[in-house]
Amino acid sequence: MDFRKTLPLTLALLGAVGSSASIGKALDLKFAGALEFSDQGTLFVGDNINGAIYAFEINNKTAVNDVHPIKIDDIDVRIANLLGVGKNAIEINDMAVHPVTHDVYISVSRIGNQIAKPAIIKVAQDDSIQLVDLNKLKFSEQKLANYPDQTTNFQVRGLMGMPPTAKDIAKGDVKLSSLAIMDILYHDHQLYVSGVAYDNFLSTLRKMPYPFTGTQNTTSVEMYHIAHDQYETRAPIRSMSIQKVDGVDQMVAAYTCSPIVLIPLTDIKDGAKIAAHTIGDMGNGQPIDMIPYTFKGKKMLFVTNNSRSPQVIPVDGLNNARTVTDKDFARGPKMDLGPVLPYGPVGEMVMFEGVSMHMDLLSDKYFVSITRDTQTGGLNLDSNPTFFPNRVHNLVAEYDFPQYQQEHKKQAE
Amino acid sequence: MTYARSTSMVGMANAMSTLLFILILSVVAPLAEAQKGSVSLPTTESQTLSIALNRLPKDAISGDIADYLSVFVGTKDTCCEQSNPIAGRYHHDDTRAYFTPYFEFVRGQSYVVETKEITSEQGLQAHLYEFKLTAAVPKTAKVTQIQPSSSRIPENTLRFYLYFTQAMKPNVAFNYIKLVNAAGEEDNAAFMKFKQELWSADRKRLTLLMDPGRIKRGVETNLELGPALESGKKYKIVVKAGWPTASGNQTLLGFSHSYQISNALRTLPDVKKWTITAPKRGSLQPLRIQLDRLFDYQLLHSKIALYTPDGDKISGQIDLDEEHQTWQFTPERQWHTKQVMLSVDAKLEDVAGNNFKDVMDHPVGDKIHQIDSIERSILLK
Predict the structure, then answer these.
(1) In this structure, what are the phi and psi dihedrals at residue B200, rounded to the nearest 5 degrees?
(2) Is A218 in the same domain as A132?
């Protein structure tokens, strides 16, 4: 007999464990992961090792009117060198743009002498790359309740029944807590944190006020996964955005492989176990960032993915969306090469040259992206126009021929 | 494209190269404090780097010392265009200016110091100094433990584990590992020799099997050579010095462990014969089990588990006493249920390879017990 549990514990039992806010003590940041800014410029940093959110005051009021589109090649090499190591000794974890100064902040793990240390890098509007001295900033800290242990790792599996590869096996050394803080969102003096909780690995949405008061809500989220054809309670929300849908504030959230769900903010209550409303699926893949922006006067969500081109979802298309369940589909997994996906009001997949690993909105005209270059394999910090988020340096089209340009010059004359 | 910090450095260096002679010095930091001309280079990760103030123009310390002293990742051949200097802090006293990197220097990484120093003509010269902290490599490798670590083992012991401080060179194990009897004679046929040695993934643990042919009664090698270990006698497992590590940078120090041999174990293990000492509820006291025999060391760490009545696996630390007669479990969090469930995987083997399903050396036709695990409920105090 196997005693291992198959049903998750309700978080209600666990109440308010280990929640605290602290101000004035020495900074003990162990990992700089997910990043988010408040509207005023407070930088929130998720620390998956300490199980806490740190808030740093970077209240530079010097607003920039004409935002300069940053373009820096080999950003990983430059950051690594600034930290005194080679490019293989850093990992870039997240990126966020300061809402007032439009400086780009990047969270990094720096590995040296066999120890990983956190660092926050600022790429300023003058293209300078600087290390942020966090010890000089005023900070506060909120420990997360029901935080997972640091000993449970992922289970090893191969692709669809095939034997696991060496890299699949290495996943068995990754801690579940690495997914405990996936995305942080600031909205109306509240901080929303998606991730996994406790040792039962429950998909969780946390909500806490900022400035921190020590109180927080921990809500366990279940959802119907169209592509996997199952109800999922463990895999966490990868990226999210709060939008007015059907007249109320709702969380629009993206999961791996890649359903889109809606969660009314009023559902997020401490100890609650809620069912998110699955309204669509973008197709197989793993979402990275969800960035709200405006295109031709309409609110849009730009959703990047590590396995497919970005998806642009019009927010008004989410109104009156139908919530689907297992009753709406035939049994069995849904793959890209099938009649079902993409499903629902998930907008369009758009062209994006290269692969964006982290993205945010730099200004009303540009996205800023850490992009893997398809030609060199290098990492570029790029600014991509929101109306057509591309670069043309790796593309050769009719327009690049001198004959074409001469002909059009003549025609213009 | 411009890079504020590095642009000023690079621009300045280019301009000066047309006016000034650039002197390049190469320094490989020796183990002792490295003082090279005006610059003092670090020899440990946490040391600062400094330059004599009299080598800098007078206005250097009132402005940005970084314009005259910067450290880059890389070698002097690649320094320092298109590169960002390392982030760090500057300060000075009466005689020297110091640079402390924000993150400590990394062993094995090459660094270049770029300075702008005054010449006798009061002009500025650029200098490059290269340094690299040597990696901290231990000079020798050691055997940290052998399992079983007990002083007595049964005659038909099947499996031993040797643990090393470093990854060891494979395929030469039996040039170094010997079973030696009380008279000092080596038995070269004691261990099973496979084409592929049984190493852990990090190559720091070697599993050593006694040749089962020597153990199983009536098998040819057993009849010819007799058992490798005989009850009542003393033996040593010796690992000879000189075994190279996988990197080839170290050799192993010698190791040996003596065993007194007891009678063969040819019965099934029995949980009913275990004595269980329950801890107090609400405490962090260990739960102790007095075992009925010597079990396999590795399997004792993975095949016995404790669960709450709800079926949650309890996390904690497993410890064994020196003779491996007691299995002890200290929970990570306080015991919070009235009782806990002990689950013993039927594949848990004793040192002779007997498990709860069958004995290793059983007559043909013996019944195999069809069980997967044995469960016991333990009431806490």
Answers:
(1) -70, 165
(2) no
Distance CA B291, CA B297 (A): 13
CATH number for A293: 2.130.10
| ipTM of the predicted assembly exceeds 0.90 | no
For the domain spanning B4-132, the CATH number is 2.60.40
Q: Which fold has domain B271-379?
A: Immunoglobulin-like (2.60.40)
**How many residues belong to chain A?**
413
CA distance B84 to chain A (A): 6
The verdict on A116 and A253 lying in the same domain is no
Spatial CB neighbours of A240, under 8 Å, sequence gap ≥ 6: A183, A185, A192, A194, A251, A252, A253, A254, A290
Closest approach of B35 to chain A, Cα-based (Å): 21
**pLDDT tens digits for range A20-72:** 444 457 899 999 999 999 999 999 999 999 999 999 999 777 788 899 999 99
Q: From CA B76, how far away is CA B86, in angstroms rounded?
A: 15
Contact B84 A82 (CB under 8 A): yes
The range of the structural domain enclosing residue A105 comes to: 18-144
- Enumerate the residues of chain A whose CB falls inside 8 A of the CB of residue B310: 5
Contact A130 B107 (CB under 8 A): no
Indicate the pTM of the whole model.
0.70
CB A92 within 8 A of CB A77: no
How close is the nearest chain A Cα to the Cα of B225, in Å? 42
Residue B197: CB partners within 8 Å, gap ≥ 6? Answer: B170, B171, B173, B206
